[in-house]
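Progress report, Aim 2. The chain analyzed during this reporting quarter is listed below.
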Amino acid sequence: MDLSFLIRRLAEQAAPEPGTGRLRLPTERELGASLEVSRGSLREQLSMLEMLGFLDRTQGRGSYLQVPDSGFLRLYFDLSHQLDQLTHEQFSAAREMLEISVAEAAARLATDDDVAELRALVDEMVRAADAGEQDRALEADLEFHRRLFALVGNPIFTLMRDGVAHVLRGAVVERRRLAVEREPAVDGGGRPSDAVHYEVVEALAARDGVAAGAAMRRHFVVWRSATHS
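Predicted structure tokens for the chain:
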């Protein structure tokens, strides 16, 4: 039985559990009878769904249907990358398109508090990089971009971002290392590849979606200029 078809059939039979709202499934015996499959075959398929994160099974409590977290997509992207089915260039291009769209949307939704928090992250990024604390600068950089996605609040974008960011994390670390080696720091303003984040913040502060998208696009141009030979 196709797994997507199986999930649809399971969803039809799952019932909200009183008190928790979790989608509890009937017993394996009941499922096997309704789906007209052997118990052995059903167990094999349920184990596959559990491994993929679609099912939570606890001895003595039962089985619950659930939506997997971003770990499922991270695993898929990671394996696809390792098997050369998806290239680094494709992941990078996808990230750039996603982040430009998210920056545009964030400009329409950002509050003054959101803008202040994002500005503080860029300040932290610049201070840490100037102090030679590259791990702290990296985390501020990653948090800045994660916060933009959280601000927009679209779970589809967030899921895609988590999957792509997982694959590209090593590349981001290497990119920051190259920027430190090749890019001159500007007194009081940090390196251009860090300071360019301020342009995104200013566009958000102006609630200008077009400018925010352009600033995020420039962010990627500056990074490529700083890290490519």
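The first helix runs from residue 3 to 13. The domain at 3-65 is CATH 1.10.10.10 (Arc Repressor Mutant, subunit A). These observations will guide the mutagenesis work planned for the next reporting period.
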